[in-house]
Amino acid sequence: MSVFQSSHEEVVDAMEEIKIDISDRTPREVTFDKSTERDYVITMGCSADDVCPAGWAGENRDWDRDDPDGKSPEEVAAIRDDIEQRVNDLFDELETKEL
C-alpha cells in the first residue's frame, strides 16, 4: 500500500470511480527548483510564494480547495469534479492565449 493510499484512501476511491488508478501515487512537494522549470504552479489550499523565485516569469495560482481527508465520498467527488473543471478551464484559457 502506498503512502498516498494509506493517508488519502478516500481520494483513491473517488478517482477509481472515474476509472483513474492513483493507488501507486504519492503527493509531491513544490520546490524552488521545480517551480522554475514551469510556466504555471497550481496549488490547492497553500501558496507557492515561498518557493517561487521573485524573478520567475511563471504564474502561481492557488485554487484553495478543501482537504479531502476525512470527507464523505460525495464531498471528495465534488472536490475532484471541481478540480477537473478548473483544469479544463485552464486549458481553455491557455488555448485562447495561443490564438
From TrEMBL:
<dbReference type="InterPro" id="IPR036196">
    <property type="entry name" value="Ptyr_pPase_sf"/>
</dbReference>
<feature type="domain" description="Phosphotyrosine protein phosphatase I">
    <location>
        <begin position="1"/>
        <end position="93"/>
    </location>
</feature>
<dbReference type="Pfam" id="PF01451">
    <property type="entry name" value="LMWPc"/>
</dbReference>
<feature type="region of interest" description="Disordered">
    <location>
        <begin position="55"/>
        <end position="81"/>
    </location>
</feature>
<dbReference type="InterPro" id="IPR023485">
    <property type="entry name" value="Ptyr_pPase"/>
</dbReference>
<keyword id="KW-0059">Arsenical resistance</keyword>
<dbReference type="GO" id="GO:0046685">
    <property type="term" value="P:response to arsenic-containing substance"/>
</dbReference>
<feature type="compositionally biased region" description="Basic and acidic residues">
    <location>
        <begin position="59"/>
        <end position="81"/>
    </location>
</feature>
<protein>
    <submittedName>
        <fullName>Arsenate reductase</fullName>
    </submittedName>
</protein>
